[in-house]
Specification:
The protein is α+β, with helices and mostly antiparallel strands and 394 residues long. 25% of the residues lie in helices and 30% in strands. It binds copper (II) ion.
Length: 394
C-alpha cells in the first residue's frame, strides 16, 4: 500500500537554489563591469590620445593650409606683379593677329608739352590733308588731318598775353575751318570755311589761361571732329603754375568706323557717331598707345597732365590708378586755386582740365577714362615711374 508522507514535500525555497546563481551573476556582473570599466578607461585614454592626435593633425593641416595659402598667394602675386586687372590691351575692336607687334612698331604721338615760343606773336601754320592714319594696331582710317600727321593736330603752347596768328591751308577736298576755344573772337569771321587750295589767317590774343580744344567748325561738325579735326592749345598763365618735373598733353577722342579698317581703310559711320557707339576711344588718336609706349616719370617727381576731351561727343572721366590728384584744375580753370585730393574728374567733351600727381613709388600707373567702356575701347595709357620690372602686358 502506498504510503504518503504526512506532509507534502516542501518546495525548496527559492533562496536556496538562487544563492549560487546570484553569486555567479554578481560575479559575472562584476567581471563584466570591470571589463566595461577597463574598456571605458582604455577607450577614454584612446579617445584622449586620438583627440590629441587629431588636434596635432588639425594644427598640422592648418599650418599646411596657411603655408599653402601663402604659397598660392605668392604664386598669384608673382603672376600678377604687372597686372592691375585693367583691360589694358584688350583691343575690343577688331585687330589683325599681329596687333601686338604692330602696336610695338607704332610711333606713339609725342605727348610731351612743347616749349612756349618766345616773343609776343606766335605764328601757327597748319596744312590740312586727307590722309590714312592708324587709330589702333593695323586699323586704318580715312582722316582729315590738321597738320598732315594725323589726329590730334599739333599741341599749341602759348603764354597768357601772347597773340596767336593762325594760318590754315586747306590741302583737302572739301571746305574746312578752325575754331579755337581759347579765343574771344567773332566766329563767323575767324572760324569761317576755307575752300580747298585756299589759306586763311586770323589772330587772337590768348588772354585766358587754361587748356582748350581747337577743332574744325565746318558743318556737319560731328563729322569733321569725328574724322580727326581736333587738337589742344595750352595757355600758360603769366605768373606760371607750380613747377613740375614732367608735362604731358592728352587729347581724348572716339572713332566711329564703317568697317574694321584692316583690309582697307575705314571711313566715318555717321549712324554710329550719332548713336554715340564708337569702335575705338583713344588718347592722342591711337588705342592703347601709351600702354605699349608708356609716358615716363621718376620716383618722387610730379607729373602734370593737360587733358582735353575732343569727343566729338563723349566725355572723359580722367583718373590715374594708384594715386590721387595732388592738384586738379577742374574745367581748366587755372586762374583759380586747384582742387586737392581728387580721385576722378570729368572732362566734358569740348572741355579741358589740368592734373598734377606726385608719385613716390616706382611702378606702372595707368591713366584712364574711368567710364570703363572707354578703357575697353582703348582710352588707357601708362605712366611708368622709375624702372619697374616688365610691363603691364608682358
Ligand atoms: Cu573740317
Amino acid at each position: 500500500m502506498a504510503t504518503y508522507p504526512s506532509s507534502p514535500p516542501t518546495r525548496p525555497t527559492p533562496a536556496e537554489p538562487v544563492k549560487p546563481w546570484f553569486g555567479q551573476f554578481a560575479l559575472v556582473a562584476i567581471i563584466l563591469l570591470g571589463i566595461c570599466v577597463a574598456v571605458f578607461a582604455v577607450a577614454a585614454v584612446t579617445t584622449m590620445w586620438a583627440a590629441d592626435e587629431a588636434r596635432d593633425e588639425a594644427k598640422a593641416v592648418a599650418a599646411n593650409v596657411a603655408a599653402g595659402k601663402a604659397e598660392s598667394a605668392a604664386t598669384a602675386q608673382a603672376a600678377h606683379d604687372h597686372n592691375t586687372a585693367l583691360p589694358l590691351n584688350s583691343f575690343a575692336g577688331v585687330v589683325p593677329d599681329n596687333a601686338t607687334e604692330l602696336a610695338e612698331a607704332h610711333k606713339a604721338y609725342d605727348a610731351t608739352m612743347p616749349a612756349v615760343p618766345s616773343g609776343d606773336l606766335v605764328k601757327v601754320q597748319m596744312t590740312l590733308k586727307d590722309m590714312v592714319v592708324e587709330v589702333a594696331p593695323g586699323v586704318k582710317y580715312n582722316t582729315w588731318a590738321f597738320d598732315g600727321h594725323g589726329a590730334p593736330g599739333p599741341i599749341v603752347h602759348v603764354r597768357e598775353g601772347q597773340t596767336v596768328e593762325m594760318t590754315l591751308t586747306n590741302g583737302g577736298a572739301i571746305p574746312h575751318s578752325i575754331d579755337f576755344h581759347a579765343a574771344r573772337i567773332a566766329p563767323n569771321v575767324a572760324f569761317k570755311d576755307v575752300a580747298p587750295g585756299d589759306s586763311f589767317t586770323f589772330r587772337f590774343e590768348a588772354g585766358d589761361p587754361g587748356v582748350y580744344m581747337y577743332h574744325c567748325g565746318t558743318k556737319p561738325v560731328l563729322a569733321h571732329i569725328a574724322n580727326g579735326m581736333y587738337g589742344a592749345i595750352v595757355v600758360e598763365p603769366k605768373e606760371g603754375l607750380p613747377a613740375v618735373d614732367n608735362e604731358y598733353v592728352l587729347v581724348a577722342s572716339e572713332w566711329y568706323l564703317n568697317g574694321d579698317g584692316i583690309s582697307e581703310p575705314a571711313s566715318l559711320d555717321m549712324s554710329k557717331a550719332r548713336a554715340m557707339m564708337p569702335d575705338w576711344t583713344t588718347f592722342n588718336g591711337y588705342a592703347n598707345q601709351y600702354v605699349t609706349h608708356p609716358l615716363t616719370a621718376g620716383p618722387g617727381e610730379t607729373t602734370r597732365f593737360w587733358v582735353v576731351a575732343a569727343g566729338p561727343t563723349l566725355d572723359t572721366n580722367f583718373h590715374v590708378v594708384g594715386t590721387i590728384f595732388d592738384r586738379a584744375w577742374v574745367n581748366g580753370d587755372i586762374a583759380n586755386p586747384p582742387q586737392t585730393g581728387v580721385q576722378t574728374v570729368l572732362v566734358p567733351a569740348g572741355g579741358g582740365a589740368v592734373f598734377d600727381v606726385k608719385v613716390d613709388e616706382e611702378g606702372l600707373y595707368p591713366f584712364v577714362s574711368h567710364a570703363f567702356a572707354h578703357v575697353d575701347l582703348g582710352q588707357v595709357g601708362l605712366l611708368k615711374v622709375g624702372n619697374p620690372k616688365g610691363t603691364m602686358t608682358h
